Amino acid sequence: MKEIILCKYGEIALKGLNKSTFESMMVKTIKRRLRSAGEFSITKSQSTLYVEPLGDDPDVDEFMERLSKIFGIVKICRSGIFEKDINAITAKAPEYLEELLETAHTFKVNAKRSDKKFPLKSPEICRELGGAILQKYPHLKVDVHHPDVTVTVEIREQAYVHGDPIDGAGGIPVGSSGRAMLLLSGGIDSPVAGYMMARRGAVVEAIHFEAPPYTSERAKMKVEKLAKIITAYCGDIKFFCVPFTEIQMQLRAHCPEELFTILMRRLMMEIAQRICEREGDIQALVTGESLGQVASQTMYAMVCTDAACRMPVFRPCVGMDKSEIVEISRKIGTFETSILPYEDCCTVFTPKHPKTKPSLVEVEKAQNSFDFEPFIQKAVDATTVELIKV
Ligand code: ATP
Ligand code: MG
User: For the whole prediction, is pTM greater than 0.70?
Assistant: First the structure.
């Protein structure tokens, strides 16, 4: 049975004149992410993209799985392709939908007739196919208001028949909102933050601070793995890795311990911004911070962090409870990796009693008491970069 996947888009259908730009972005993304799943063709019409897996025995499940992670698509329907002839449809479609219909109690048929030359009108198509379904599955009843299954027939270049759609990833296409640098740790929150920014159309790059030998090669590999997992949603990610040990040693030697985390965060921001400036065309920084989650994430602390930033800092998890962040991390598949117990540069150097209400004056004074500049520049120069591909 030949099949085709119908991808319906949500918000971008409302984009007016910009709609075709959004569509082309999505088509480009689909082409890139599906390429290694096999051959396929893609066409668009009426706020729907039609992805047809080609070849002898395409892995349609794999195509569906990948499409379900592409932002901009809200509903996905796996459909059988039938000859554009009512007899062919009534003869074969009931069997094609066997798995769905056998377990259902009620159903209805819905017809969309884009090809106005098709000899039957929509109500007639519904009646014919509904009758054929009832004949093959006598246990079923028609319920037009709350059916267990809605069978849809679309008469287009050919006839497509499908049951209810599954949910797509939602959001808007990656690439439609600018480019952001995600501060990616090995924790639960920052991969979720990256996912949420990509969902709103941002291209995401990632920067990670490591502190060898206090943090191990395996800790870094864990972060790379997290980046790899979210590429399914974000696309390829440029991954920057900054050696941060020396700066932390200087911090420890020259600054008050209670301000340690906040100073570290400010220095991370400074380095991240320099990398962004060097890269060019990156508009914002992104962190996984959530208001009040820990001492360094109070509003006072965030004020001190942002004062070190020339770029806007987005914190998509800021208003979320940990349990909500965990729920998303499970959904996107990062949770199991995030909870692996490897050390992070922040945890290695965590002060015993961090200040929850640091004032910007004292923070700046502490930072200015030592010349970090040569160490910042050295860290920037020693930053490595690799491309993490989908
Ligand atoms: P996460 O689960 O994202 O690690 P967290 O609850 O552990 O968050 P912190 O360790 O306070 O919180 O980090 C807050 C944010 O700072 C992180 O979400 C991340 O964006 C950034 N961050 C922390 N450590 C690093 C690091 N080693 N490299 C890059 N970014 C980091
Ligand atoms: Mg962390």
Answer: yes
